[in-house]
């Protein structure tokens, strides 16, 4: 095996005092929402906002003097770049990171502020990785792979050791999967010390590279589509990571975009925690009903990252509200005569809903010139409230077409 339990134990000693020993508190609100006894491992509280510091710190300290002097390079969607840049700065090691152009702006800015050379290249992680390999050869730098370097995997495994110390009677851990470095390290640490703990992986359906690797028996390249869980948008899991994780991970589930959005919303509202889509993926699996076997059991959810642009956060929260039935969109045909709009708005208010946005369409209407089409975005209480509003509009003679944003489902592997 490319990584042994002893490597993780040594990494824990090596990074102690340099990486935050993050809390793992119980969450009554999330427990009530999921029917499980939920604990959240708050690695979004790391200094650079994600678990990636663990592996980066460990790998940098294992470099020889000459390697440290020449400098290091990495490809990253953002969090590995942040962790590597932060700890390289503390050690006086020059660092270059290649990010896809789609990387969140906050991650790019923070890396540059910490002194890293940031190169934006390509539209996805794989293109950025190829550029990093080219620059490594050209400049003679040491590549520190964000999820497949054995030292990085060992560093990520320290999270598993901490979880067992903090929640010794844990029954399951649901781990987000991007390149599979985190789940490989956590699974090795936990299964070595407590084999009965279930290790369940979760990845976005738009980049389900681990699920594809399981089917193929080895890592394969998959098509990557944009996802709210951008930190998990890795089109091929690492070979070393997969070799470690495959025999230890019990099974995996795949979540959809609306599940991730709802999980981000729940964490903001119930835990006052700002977590990026990748960090909310574990909760998304629970809220989507993908792990029914864990009902009533003690479960740890690693909130693996909290680096999210505020503009993106706003969009995700709105999607979460729509998924939760607290925002709905519909078009309706109303009278274009004086008082028509007022009567329509009064009906919505009478149903206890609130118009957030409304716009008229007259120019491209067909038929009756005395009517107008309006498109409305309305704040509601829940899905039942939307149903009541729809029924009231129909009773009062309005022709309305609602945009469906009903429950999302996922599937397991």
Query: Given the structure, what is the number of helices?
Result: 16
Shape: elongated
Order of helices and strands: HHEHHEHEHEHEHEHEHHEHHEHEHEEHEE
Query: What's the CATH topology label of the largest domain?
Result: Rossmann fold
What's the number of extended β-strand segments?
A: 14
- The helicity comes to 40-55%
The average pLDDT is 93
- List the uncertain runs: 406-412
Gap between N and C termini: 24 Å
- Percent of residues in β-strands: 15-25%
Q: How would you characterize this protein structure?
A:
This protein is of the alpha/beta class and 413 residues long. It has 3 domains: 5-47 and 149-322, Rossmann fold (3-Layer(aba) Sandwich), CATH 3.40.50.1100; 53-143, Rossmann fold, CATH 3.40.50.1100; 328-402, ACT domain (Alpha-Beta Plaits). It is 44% helix and 18% strand. The protein has 16 helices and 14 strands. It has helices spanning 5-15, 28-34, 52-61, 65-70, 79-91, 105-113, 125-139, 150-166, 181-193, 209-216, 239-245, 257-271, 277-287, 310-323, 340-350, 383-395; strands at residues 37-41, 72-75, 95-99, 117-120, 142-143, 172-176, 198-204, 251-255, 298-302, 327-335, 354-361, 371-379, 399-402, 411-412. The strands form 3 sheets. A 6-stranded mixed sheet has the order 1-9-6-7-8-14, sandwiched between helices. It has a 4-stranded parallel sheet with strand order 4-3-2-5, sandwiched between helices. A 4-stranded antiparallel sheet has the order 11-12-10-13. Strand 3 (95-99), helix 6 (105-113) and strand 4 form a beta-alpha-beta unit. Helix 1 (5-15) packs across helix 8, helix 5 packs parallel to helix 6 and helix 12 (257-271) crosses helix 13 (277-287). The longest helix has 17 residues, at 150-166. It is elongated, with a radius of gyration of 24 Å. The protein starts with a helix and ends with a strand. The relative contact order is 0.12. Mean pLDDT is 93; it is low at 406-412.
